[in-house]
Design goal:
D-Maltodextrin-Binding Protein, domain 2, three-stranded parallel sheet, about 45% helix, about 10% strand, alpha/beta, 2 domains, seven-stranded mixed sheet, 12 strands
Length: about 425
């Protein structure tokens, strides 16, 4: 392993010095073209190629890049490097030995020459891509998930973002009295409610262990007192009329438009919100992040933060694996990471990359991320897709009022039992 690490380090150095690849045989990079576009990768590719005479780097992408990637993995002709997007079953690729581990390169020198490349990443972001002791999924930008409020609307009425459950309910009463919906949400995609309501409140009711056990398929975890309490809190908000009417049927963009147009005061979402809604934002519109309100007798660490990454991969059958790793190494240098933060308005998995002039809407999210003693992610949906669908269906029923909190918990626990009993399902463990 050490020898391979030295080899990859030499290849990376050679690439930066020139002579990596050939014009006839390009390094192919396929990227999900979402809210951040692919122009940064195209620019980085041009820079990298200029530093490496003879290397041609071709970057392409679209909003459904996974549709193009899937058949290429089947045919054994995948691109060299890819950001496959949120709908690619990357864990299935790992199980099928179709992805290259990054550990040898990570244990090599960092882009700036000090320490290892691994040491430059936020450890929690690397951990999300580990399987069987190896890193297969590499982080780049990451999103902090929490709640958002309309800054000017709050200032106009003298409201403050709530920190506790009691403060939340009191604020919702004031917002309703002003003729505005307190909270909207992306009802067509109940995963938002799991990350934004259920898990934060379960942590508040029972500590981090409550959510860890649920994701680790510990028997009874989805029917635990903490999970039931969280479901009861969601149901109470619904029964009080604090959720925007008809939010249960809204897509992410519709509910987010309702928020930015001032029809709802708060919404759960990740730090991609501003970029995703950029074209719809009214001139001068200001939004700000805050952590979900906790119970007054909060039992969890109040600094805990939910985050997520969209990973980059190198296929095991890629033609230019070493060059692909070298290019990604270049993109994760501190200088390039800071550039991505500044140009795209999101956070990067590279330590120190947030030490720039952040846009106002990112200040509180960055602060929360830095101060968090525990960072966690909703991982079970990636590991156990069928189980995840069932919990999302249960969440939809809870949000619509067609299921009680106890029925929600029972349905999720039954689905968890089915996953536990499935001997063909690869099992994972959440660790912090």
């Amino acid at each position: 392993m050490k020898a391979l690490g030295r080899c990859l380090a030499l290849v990376a150095a050679a690439c930066l010095a020139g002579g990596c690849g050939s014009k006839k045989d390009a390094l192919e990079v396929a990227a999900f073209k979402g809210g951040y576009g692919i122009d940064f990768y195209e620019k980085a590719a041009s820079e990298f190629a200029s530093k490496n005479p003879g290397l041609n780097v071709e970057v392409w992408g679209n909003p459904r890049v996974w549709d193009q990637l899937a058949p290429r993995f089947v045919s054994g002709n995948p691109p060299d490097l890819s950001l496959p997007g949120w709908d690619m079953r990357v864990w299935a690729l790992i199980y099928d030995n179709q992805l290259e581990p990054w550990d040898a390169a990570l244990d090599g020198p960092a882009p700036d020459g000090t320490g290892t490349w691994r040491s430059k990443f936020l450890p929690a972001t690397l951990k999300l891509g580990e399987y069987d002791g190896k890193v297969y999924l590499m982080p780049f930008y990451y999103s902090v998930q929490g709640w958002w409020y309309n800054v000017d609307l709050f200032a106009q009425h003298g409201w403050k973002p709530p920190k506790t459950w009691t403060e939340l309910l009191a604020l919702c009463d004031k917002i309703k009295a002003a003729g505005i919906a307190p909270i909207t949400y992306q009802g067509m995609y109940p995963a938002y409610a799991i990350a934004g309501f259920l898990f934060p409140w379960a942590i508040s009711a029972g500590g981090m262990q409550a959510v860890d056990d649920a994701q680790n398929l510990v028997p009874g975890a989805w029917e635990s007192p903490a999970m039931l309490k969280a479901a009861q809190m969601i149901d109470e908000v619904r029964r009080r009329g604090d959720f925007q009417d008809k939010a249960i049927g809204m897509s992410h963009t519709v509910s987010q438009t309702e928020f930015i147009e001032g029809h709802a005061a708060m919404i759960p979402c990740g730090t991609w919100l501003h970029s995703e809604m950029g074209k719809q934002l009214p001139p001068g519109f200001r939004m700000q992040f805050f952590l979900p309100p906790v119970l007054d007798d909060n039992k969890g660490d109040p600094t805990n933060v939910c985050f997520s990454v969209e990973p980059w991969i190198v296929p095991a059958k890629a033609k230019h694996k070493k060059e692909a790793i070298a290019f990604f190494r270049y993109m994760t240098s501190l200088a390039k990471a800071k550039e991505f933060v500044q140009t795209k308005g999101t956070l990067m998995a590279i330590k120190g990359s947030d030490q720039v002039d952040l846009p106002d809407y990112l200040l509180e999210a960055a602060k929360a991320s830095r101060q968090a003693k525990v960072s966690w992610s909703v991982m079970y949906g990636q590991w156990y897709p069928e189980f995840s669908k069932e919990t999302e269906g249960a969440m939809s029923a809870l949000l619509s009022g067609s299921a009680t909190p106890q029925e929600f918990c029972d349905r999720c626990e039954a689905a968890a039992q089915k996953a536990r009993d499935d001997t063909n399902l690869r099992k994972h463990q959440v660790t912090h």
